[in-house]
Automatic annotation (TrEMBL):
Keywords: Membrane, Transmembrane, Transmembrane helix. GO terms for molecular function: transmembrane transporter activity. It is found in: Cell membrane. Its main location: membrane. The chain crosses the membrane at residues 40-66, 78-97, 109-129, 135-153, 165-186, 192-213, 225-245, 257-274, 294-318, 324-347, 359-382, 388-411, 423-444, 456-475. Pfam families: MFS_1. Residues 1-21 are annotated as: Disordered. GO terms for cellular component: plasma membrane. It comes from the Bacteria. It is a multi-pass membrane protein. Residues 40-479 form the Major facilitator superfamily (MFS) profile domain. This is MFS transporter.
């Protein structure tokens, strides 16, 4: 899953108020930087890289995990959603922890905890314990992403900040898309447990580099942590997700299903009620008065729920129904990675020139068409005819979409609110994926077969189209270079 960005400083502004970032991994590494800035960039990239890699690498390992533990689709859903649940629910409060206790300290704790929980996943003797370890691993990931971005924005400024964020975006985006390739090789050669064990090496390297970075002195009072909001968010997300996954096994009439569902919905309503009244909310609802911010997040829901559900089911389908090895299933995603690397810079630049609206409209529609092309992937699957063209089209759609979407959402708010804006958009994308994966069993039916796979691809395409339509109807290109929040009444 491609990450979202902070907005750079004013000197990095693009025409028409749009601030594009080309997600090329080399873009931020060519500028002249101090040794401390270079260390910060390395730490930020590696910290987020392991978090995004772990979120995507797992898909190709799911069939092997299910074979060893004797689990069904529900176990595979929980292995994915356990991680997304704690990551999505806690990423906002993790941003507050970073502001309160310091970016370096929170990153260090997050890295150590991520390493410990990765090893716990690698040695888990039972499926239930693996899910618990994944939930705890998601907690660590929530600490890594906002702290790494905040460290960049507090260290770089102006054009250098934009280039550093571009480097961060490129490498983490590659982690999210290329992870299945590495995961497939590991599963087929030395086993699925090494999908988690491999995290230890980059974590150790990151901790060594992090030791060279001093914590910047605080310039203002530390914000209070919204513990009530965090608790309501966890309950409001966790309980419904539990119900959505387990209803396939127990049915909607079971109290084990409808009880948590009702509790979760009430908790989620309580979360929004509290955030509207809390003195220092972890999700300031006032940001949603900005048109491009709230419309962009609606588009994010459609686009990232489609990506999470589509690639989750596609990886499992290729192995369990198509008879592919884990490596072969992972390699099928390479064309999407190549399309992103080749064209994301171009479309980011064009969005800066012409505004994000048309690209946020066309991109998801192109990606949706790509998922519809996968309807032809019926066994015996001919990769070059039935898979590669579709994945190329999906990758092109993503290249058209990602940078303009980020620029539209985060380019619409004030610079001092870019941190929380990024955290909110990150949380929205993770929660969208979380719920989509939880609904997989409902869409597929009793077992994953060709018909169930095709139903999922149609749903994924519809979600993509919805993201594009929402962008066309709602996104506006600001007439001036001023952030929208300074004049929200013009775009409401």
């Amino acid at each position: 899953m491609a990450p979202v960005l902070h907005r750079p400083g004013p000197s990095a502004r693009a025409p028409a108020g749009v601030r594009p970032f080309a997600p090329t991994p080399s873009s931020g590494l060519k500028c002249g930087v101090t040794p401390r800035q270079r260390s910060v960039l390395i730490v930020a990239i590696l910290s987020s890289f392991v978090a995004f890699l772990d979120g995507s690498i797992i898909n190709v390992a799911l069939p092997a995990i299910a074979r060893e533990f004797g689990g069904d689709l529900a176990l595979q859903q929980w292995v994915v959603d356990g991680y997304l649940l704690s990551l999505g629910a806690l990423i906002l409060v993790a941003g507050s922890l970073s502001d309160t206790y310091g970016r370096v300290r929170v990153l260090r704790v997050g890295l150590i905890w991520f390493g410990i929980t990765s090893l716990a996943c690698a040695v888990a003797p039972l499926g239930t314990l693996l899910v618990v370890a994944r939930i705890l691993q998601g907690v660590a990931a929530a600490l890594l992403v906002p702290s790494s971005l905040a460290l960049i924005t507090s260290t770089f400024s102006g054009a250098a900040q934009g280039k550093a964020i571009g480097a961060w975006t490129g490498w983490t985006g590659i982690a999210g898309i290329a992870g299945p390739v590495l995961g497939g090789v590991l599963v087929d050669t030395i086993g699925w447990r090494f999908v988690f064990g491999i995290n230890v090496l980059p974590i150790l390297v990151t901790l060594v580099v992090l030791a060279r970075i001093d914590e910047p002195a605080r310039t203002g009072p530390a914000p209070r942590i919204d513990l009530a909001g965090a608790g309501l968010a966890v309950l409001g997300l966790g309980a419904p997700v539990f119900a959505l996954i387990e209803q396939g096994r127990l049915g909607w009439g079971s109290p084990v299903v409808f009880g948590p569902l009702i509790i979760g919905v009430l908790a989620l309503a309580g979360f929004f009620w509290w955030e509207a009244r809390a003195p220092q909310p972890m999700m300031p609802l006032a940001l949603f008065r900005v048109r491009n911010f709230w419309v962009g997040n609606i588009a994010t829901v459609g686009i990232y729920s489609a990506l999470s559900l589509g690639f989750f089911i596609f990886s499992v389908y290729l192995q369990q129904v198509g008879g592919f090895s884990a490596t072969a299933a992972g390699v099928t995603g390479v064309p999407a990675t190549l399309m992103l690397l080749l064209f994301a810079t171009l479309f980011g630049t064009l969005a800066g020139r012409y505004g994000p609206r048309r690209f946020m409209t066309i991109g998801p529609i192109v990606a949706g068409v790509g998922f519809l092309l996968l309807l032809a992937a019926v066994p015996p699957i001919v990769v070059w005819l039935q898979v590669v063209p579709a994945i190329v089209v999906i990758g092109l759609g993503l290249a058209i979409t990602v940078a303009p979407l980020t620029a539209a959402v985060l380019g619409s708010i004030r610079a001092e609110q870019a941190g929380i804006g990024s955290a909110i958009n990150n949380a929205v994308s993770r929660v969208a994926g979380l719920i989509a994966v939880a609904l997989a069993g409902t869409i597929i039916g009793e077992r994953l077969d060709v018909a169930g796979f095709q139903r999922v691809m149609v749903v994924v395409a519809v979600l993509m189209f919805a993201g594009g339509i929402a962008s066309w109807l709602g996104i506006r290109t600001p007439a001036t270079d001023s952030p929208e929040l300074e004049h929200p009444e013009k775009l409401l």
